[in-house]
Amino acid sequence: MNYKTSSQLEGNTLQMGDLVNLCSVGHSVNDCFSLDNLGGCQNAWVLAVLDVYNQEEFCQEVCGNEVSVFIDEDDCDFPEFQNFQDLTKVVLVLMKMSEDQNLSEE
Q1: Are the C-beta atoms of residues 87 and 14 closer than 8 Å to each other?
Q2: H or E segment at 43?
Q3: Cβ distance 81 to 34 under 8 Å?
Q4: HEC string of 12-72?
Q5: Cα angle 96, 81, 54; round to 5
Q6: Looking at the DSSP assignment, which residues form a beta bridge with residue 5?
Q7: N or C: fewer beta carbons within 10 Å in the chain?
């Protein structure tokens, strides 16, 4: 599935191979419960544009519990979660932030 807006993602759970739009940059859901950036820029750029600097704290705040995320600071990857439900929660919030700042293509 290709989710271009948060309203399209609302009520769904991301699965491997799905596409999402963050800050007008395409991302693909991978088998590590994470996102691969398809736009040629680093995920650190996307998160910085949305003022997300502490990825782990942000992810735990969004999920409302102690989520286990793997963050490779050297690689600037998107956090890896333990399930698609937590990934979906975080992506949905990021999509809404992107839309609120008029940074997404519709």
Answers
A1: yes
A2: helix 43-49
A3: yes
A4: CCCCCCCEEEECCEEEEECCCCCEEECCCCCHHHHHHHCCCCCHHHHHHHHHCCCCCCECC
A5: 60
A6: none
A7: C
The residues, ordered by sequence, that sit 6+ positions from 66 with a Cβ below 8 Å of its Cβ are 60
What tokens does 68 get? 């286990």
17-48 pLDDT per residue, tens: 999 998 888 899 998 888 888 887 777 778 88
Residue listed under structure tokens 């650190």: 44
Q: What is the distance between the alpha carbons of residues 17 and 36, in angstroms, rounded to a whole number? A: 10
Tokens of 4: 């271009």
pLDDT tens, residue by residue, 46-98: 888 889 888 888 888 898 766 666 666 555 567 888 899 999 999 999 999 99
